[in-house]
Amino acid sequence: MRYFAQRLVFYVFTAWAAVTINFFVPRLTPGNPVDSLIAEYQGQISTQAVHSLTVLFGLDKQQGIFQQYISYLGQLARGDLGISFHSFPTPVSSVLAQSLPWTVCLVGVATVLSFAIGTLLGVIVGWRRGSLADMLMPITTFFASIPYFWLALLAIAAFTGVGSFLPSAGGYDPGLVPGWNGAFVASALKHSLLPAATIIVTSVAGWLMGMRNMVVTVSSEDYVTVAHAKGLSERRVMLGYAARNAMLPSVSGFGMALGLVVGGTFLVEYVFSYPGVGLELVSAIGQKDYPLMQGIFLVITLSVLAANFLADLAYMALDPRTRREG
Amino acid sequence: MTLHVDEPAAQHADADEAVLRISGLSVDYGVGERAVRAVSDVSLTLRRGEVLGLAGESGSGKSTLAYGLTRLLAPPGVVACGTVIYHPGDGSEPVDVLALDHAGLRRFRWAQTSIVFQAAMNALNPVDKISAQLTDVIKAHRPDLDRAARIARARELLGLVGIPADRLDSYPHQLSGGMRQRVMIGMALALEPRIVIMDEPTTALDVVMQRQILAVFTRLRKRLDFSVVFITHDLSLLVEFADRIAIMYGGRIVEEAPAAQIYRDPLHPYSDGLLHSFPALRGPRRELAGIPGSPPDPRSLPSGCAFHPRCPKAFDPCAREVPILGAPGEAGPGAAQGAGGGARSVACWLHTSDRSTA
Ligand SMILES: Nc1ncnc2c1ncn2[C@@H]1O[C@H](COP(=O)(O)OP(=O)(O)OP(=O)(O)O)[C@@H](O)[C@H]1O
Ligand code: SF4
Ligand SMILES: [Mg+2]
């Protein structure tokens, strides 16, 4: 429990620091941040946007910086991330609410699948070292070594096009209205197959190699020899003794990967024109939609922290040595 | 199968009844040209209820021998030749351990032969509770027992080695080194095997803990009547409670004799050196001399007697020819093979009259 409390304090502190930095950085620019932004954009900025900026920075209320900070925290607590320039007057939180589920579902599920498949294969390859299963390694490593961009374009060229079942772009058929109905879910699934497959193909090697090496290392541990000597079934030794210990480092890596789901998917969404956060960020940068960028960065930061916290929890559940009483 | 001579006697539990017969066992690391022979032509007989001590410096091949005869060698280790025959003692056929198939080997393991590893090693799975590790082996071998019975047995085992039953719910890291080792001893007895192999079970424990563990162990042995192969580099420890002692050097047995004889009158110069390398745990202190030089590398064993570069008594034939293990002062290497409790054998030219021609 001590460990748990320590980690919790750590993450809360880090989240607070991230939020605070997010608040102060734009204000560190000399002068009024709105003025400097307007100056930078040289008249391309609409009056609406000026207003939104003024509200975002709390300049409409003539508060001191500390007051501003407090009301900023209050806004955040209510999920208020300001108003988007580009889609004025839509709040940033609504824009995110539209794109975030796409990213989380596609990349999140693909990451989980990749981890599960890679780890499982890694156990088998590591356990049956020197067998045919070793062939998996060069194959998966080959796919992992192709730049993602290139692989995705190849996949689009090879598997989509006239007459193909798989669409090449988008998150769903444009004719459909998003909602929880069969036609829409089926269409969304269909659109996610190819991007998900490309993500898995390029990332599975990492999990496989990591797990394989750990299984090989752990296999020479004394407790595995003891498990053999006890006459336990091969499966029990492999899963209960070798894999169970070998996967501990993978769990931390998995937390890291989950954290990068929101922030690291720009390429996938770009290539497949997938309506997720990554694509949103690209367009926000293109349109100089400052509040939206800030909101996205905050979500990315917080999701990295949340994922790592979850990984810590999982690690604690899996490794009794971290659950020190005290 | 070929020896019918002692068949009628074998039905009875006389003191000389063999539980395990190792003959001509050699173990290599690697295969083909780069193979390194870590154990050469070892023949040993473990008798019922006996403690057979196996002593030798680090690298002499003690663990390799133990792993080889239990088929636990990790690659690249392979048994190159030899046989290991287990005599079940219930009148059923002897078992050729090296020829067992997977299922047979699984059934044989732990039920007939269990192992206690070196204390410093992490022989317990760090992520599982003690109870899980005591019961999984019972579950694997005794499917007839239900969960409650397995837990009850696990409790009983902890009791045997003097650990409170509430430790069942502990994880290995919550136990001291000595406790972990006692858990391992309890675990080794879970299925009441007839043979327990102990590979340096007390090395790396402090002397107090060492004494405690040996006391527990001696008590259990009196009660449960199993045979023991006790591996250590501390010969003085063996002198105290082994029945017979085999001394290993460079992968070979160089002397085998009843413990008292090794202690009083070691024949092989290496046994003599080894005996003087450790302070005796009890009794009068002996002078500590140690053995100059270092153990040989099995990749480049010295010619002839592997001990000759370090031997204070080396003479003419030592560097030329390998002395063969046999009864001291007698001709013919077969003289001591399978001989009874009092017999001893040694591989040293000093104690060979005419063995070079054999
Ligand atoms: N995996 C391996 N590959 C190659 N050689 C090995 C391997 N394991 C052991 N050996 C060699 O085999 C020899 C015997 O090793 P072994 O572990 O059996 O010695 P030991 O008598 O048990 O020593 P210790 O007292 O240190 O446990 C050593 O010289 C070692 O170099
Ligand atoms: S054979 Fe020679 S070298 Fe070897 S122990 Fe005997 S005397 Fe020493
Ligand atoms: Mg050893």
UniProtKB/TrEMBL annotation, chain A:
Q: Where are the transmembrane segments?
A: 7-25, 100-127, 148-172, 192-210, 246-272, 292-318
Which Pfam families does the entry mention? BPD_transp_1
Q: Give the CDD domains listed for this entry.
A: TM_PBP2
Per the record, the GO terms for biological process are: transmembrane transport
Q: Which residues form the ABC transmembrane type-1 domain?
A: 100-311
Q: How does it sit in the membrane?
A: Multi-pass membrane protein
Location in the cell reads: Cell membrane; Membrane
Q: Which UniProt key words apply to this protein?
A: Membrane, Transmembrane, Transmembrane helix, Transport
Q: Which GO terms describe its cellular component?
A: plasma membrane
Q: Is Signal there in the keyword field?
A: no
InterPro entries under this entry?
MetI-like, MetI-like_sf
Q: Which family does it belong to?
A: Belongs to the binding-protein-dependent transport system permease family.
What's the name of the protein?
Answer: ABC transporter permease
